[in-house]
Each structure stands twice: as C-alpha cells, then as structure tokens.
Design goal:
β7 (about 85) and β8 form a beta hairpin. It is built from no helices and eight strands. Helices cover about 0% and strands about 60% of the residues. With about 100 residues, it is an all-beta fold.
C-alpha cells in the first residue's frame, strides 16, 4: 500500500512494503532545496519529524525557506533500526522494519 501526499514543492510518500516483500515503514521527502547540514530528523512520542531551514541575506533583504513534516509512526515500527538516506536528487528516504506479530 502506498499513500502519496503532495503540498507545494514538498512531496511525501509513505509505503508499507519494502522491496524485499517484508513489511517496512518507508517515507520519502523532497528536500532538494536544502543543504544536508540543515536537515534534521528526530523521533519523539511515536512521531517522526523532519525539519529544515534556509536563510539567505542579500543587502537589506532576507529570504527564508522552511520545511517541516511530522508523520505518526505505529508502535510496530522498529524505530531503533530506522535508516536515513539522502539521495543525490534531494530525496530523503527513511525506512524501518515493521515487527510481525
């Protein structure tokens, strides 16, 4: 099952089955407008949050861009085994196995 959520320039995809066929939590975020050093990923209270900020000053003008997405994570997702990969095209991929009952 795949859910596609799009908002402006940020695309988020949630998948529940990994490439090997095993259940896997996977989310992808389009963060191509941000440098890797300003992208932050953290989990708290069953929620995964990705945030990034960018600020550029030119003379008297300041340009700011911010990105923040929060995804609820099921208790079955093994957060401690989560993998985070930033692809060359600016897609941030986070995956974690899902515990089978």
């Amino acid at each position: 099952m795949s859910i596609n959520m799009s908002r402006a320039n940020a695309k988020t995809t949630l998948s529940l089955q990994g490439p090997s066929g095993n259940p896997e939590f996977a989310v992808r975020f389009d963060v191509k407008d941000f440098k890797p050093e300003v992208i932050h990923v953290f989990t708290k209270s069953g929620k995964l949050t990705i945030s990034a900020t960018y600020e550029e000053k030119t003379g008297n003008f300041t340009s700011r861009r911010a990105f923040k997405r929060t995804v609820e994570v099921s208790r079955d997702v093994q957060i401690s085994l989560m993998r985070c990969t930033l692809l060359r095209d600016g897609i941030l991929c986070l995956t974690a196995p899902i515990r089978l009952l």
